[in-house]
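User: Please fill in residues for this 240-position structure.
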């Protein structure tokens, strides 16, 4: 169960096509949990509204650990295992995009790994929003994963910002540290990889972490394999 306190910071929205005003996290989780649901996104089973808080009844993967806890023990993941994890994270993001949901806080703490099945689940939609084609002027995620356009222009678009956060996550998985330690480093965008990271993986991260949003890979390009260069990189990444 997850308890969401009703205070002045609690945001509300409506699911497209519906009239009921819901807490944002409840609305987004209802959208991503509708059948056919994704095995890579934590499901909302039920929720209850009380005067002081909302109570979310969530799927509970057992046994599991988040990637933050896992990497405290491992340091960084082997390439093959990182590929396995990231493949599922991207499929989770594609599901969210197709349901009109922007997660906005993709990071290692928000990815659960079942230690028996090695299945991944994306969790915690508390920072999310409805996905839209117009800019966002507020950022609710973790600053280390924020895109440079937010720092320099105080605005960003949902999908390019998501691709940026995926690049940061992948870098962390294969290098054992974040690529940028300050907002200044984010705007510079200089990447220093650790030895042992494959050329294909480095190239893919670089394409996700382009400073200009228009130059980044899009989720659509990844899904549709529009160019041979992107297709080859992605096939190496997925191990296909």
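Assistant: Residues filled in for all 240 positions:
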């Amino acid at each position: 169960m997850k308890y969401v306190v009703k205070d002045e910071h609690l945001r509300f929205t409506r699911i497209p096509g519906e009239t009921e005003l819901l807490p944002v996290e409840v609305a987004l989780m209802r959208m991503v949990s509708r059948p056919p649901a994704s095995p890579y996104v934590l499901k909302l089973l039920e929720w209850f509204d009380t005067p002081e808080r909302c109570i979310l009844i969530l799927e509970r993967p057992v046994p599991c650990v988040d990637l933050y806890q896992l990497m405290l023990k491992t340091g960084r993941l082997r390439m093959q295992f990182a590929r396995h994890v990231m493949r599922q994270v991207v499929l989770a993001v594609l599901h969210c995009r197709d349901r009109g949901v922007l997660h906005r806080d993709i990071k290692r703490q928000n990815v659960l790994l079942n230690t028996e099945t090695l299945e991944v689940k994306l969790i915690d939609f508390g920072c999310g929003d409805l996905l839209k084609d117009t800019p966002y002027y507020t950022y609710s995620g973790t600053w280390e994963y924020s895109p440079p356009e937010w720092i320099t222009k105080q605005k960003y678009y949902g999908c390019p910002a998501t691709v940026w956060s995926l690049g940061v996550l992948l870098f962390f998985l294969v290098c054992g540290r974040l690529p940028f330690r300050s907002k200044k480093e984010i705007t510079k965008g200089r990447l220093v990889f650790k030895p042992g990271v494959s050329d294909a993986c480095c190239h893919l991260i670089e394409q996700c972490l382009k400073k200009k949003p228009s130059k980044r890979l899009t989720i659509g390009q990844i899904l549709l394999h529009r160019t041979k260069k992107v297709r080859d990189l992605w096939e190496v990444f997925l191990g296909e």
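For context: Residues 224-240 have pLDDT under 50 and may be disordered.
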